[in-house]
Amino acid sequence: MFNLRETVDNDIKAFSGLSTNRQFEILDKGPQKFIVRHKDGTHDFPQAIVFETDSINNRISIRAGTAIVLAVKPEIGPDGECLLKVDGKYLRFWQVSKEALESLFFGP
Question: Distance between CA 78 and CA 9 in Å, rounded?
């Protein structure tokens, strides 16, 4: 979860560096959950992305409001690298971050 949070944080910083009026922040809700939302705080669910670990199933659920955007499972890929598995495909942390944040950053 730490690696994914770090990747998401870097993506937020990169997006904030663009000339845009949209700014975002991460709210930590303990070691197993964090939320990305508009920095001004006026926008809330579903315009927030929730990342939360499910320690029973060893998965990370990524939600927009109550709808699950992705459910990923950390695994060691064929080349020995730690990756996130989604629907039978291995993705890197940046790919999962992109998929999770794209609609929040560029949506209405």
Answer: 27
| Cβ-Cβ contacts under 8 Å for 101 (sequence gap 6 or more) | 8, 11, 12, 15, 36, 49
For 91, residues 6+ apart whose C-beta sits below 8 A from its C-beta are 72, 83, 84, 85, 99
Q: pTM to 2 decimals?
A: 0.86
What are the start-end ranges of the E strands in the chain? 24-28, 33-38, 48-54, 59-64, 67-76, 82-86, 89-91
Query: Which CATH number do you get for residue 73?
Result: 3.30.920
Domain span holding position 74: 2-106
* Positions of the chain with pLDDT lower than 50, given as ranges: 44-46
